[in-house]
Structures are given as structure tokens and as C-alpha cells.
Design brief:
Layout lengths: L2 H16 L5 H11 L1 H8 L3 H12 L2 E3 L6 E3 H7 L3 H14 L2
Antiparallel strand pairs: 1-2
Helix pairs in contact: 1-3
Length: 98
């Protein structure tokens, strides 16, 4: 995987952590508006191509470096559906580092 795509994938995961309850459209919009550099570097500037690539990314795997778990983004989104779920993730992953 190229470095630009790796940075976008990390940002895409971060969006889910910072925005509990995000659905695909919310996630895409946040990436396009707040992570412009990562999106453009990975997928270019053509909106049609960008959104098509993000649709594919939503269903692609991401391995979280903190937990070592790998799920697709839509599954991570379901796991991070609430503030409590995200808090539990942080509690569990901080204990794993000890």
C-alpha cells in the first residue's frame, strides 16, 4: 500500500473514533472536508472518482495499530456507534499497552 493511501486509511479510522455514530455519508463528508490533503493525495480531485473510491474504502479492511484487530470501516463504524463504545475502546487499548 502506498504511503498516501495509508495516511488516508488512518485518517478514515480517526474520523470514526472522533465521530461516534457516523454512517458512511457522514464519514465521507468529514474526510472530504477535514482531511482534504489525504483524500486528494490518495484519490485525486475528481469528485466522482473520490466518492467512488471512498465507497470502496468503506468496505475495505483496516488494521488498528492499537488493538491489532482488523475490520472493514463499516464494521468499525458499528463498533463505535456511541460515545460509550469509543470510551471502552480507549480503555481497552490503553490496558493492552501496559
Amino acid at each position: 500500500m502506498n504511503e498516501c493511501l495509508a495516511e488516508l486509511k488512518a485518517a478514515a479510522f480517526e474520523v470514526l473514533l472522533l465521530n461516534p455514530g457516523s454512517e458512511m455519508a457522514d464519514w465521507q463528508q468529514t474526510l472530504v472536508l477535514q482531511y482534504v490533503t489525504e483524500v486528494v493525495d490518495a484519490y485525486g480531485k475528481n469528485p466522482t472518482e473520490v466518492y467512488a473510491a471512498l465507497n470502496d474504502l468503506w468496505e475495505s479492511p483496516y488494521e488498528d495499530i492499537n488493538s491489532g484487530l482488523e475490520y472493514d470501516y463499516k464494521t468499525w463504524a458499528a463498533a463505535f456507534a456511541t460515545d460509550e463504545a469509543v470510551r471502552m475502546y480507549y480503555d481497552l487499548t490503553s490496558k493492552m499497552k501496559m
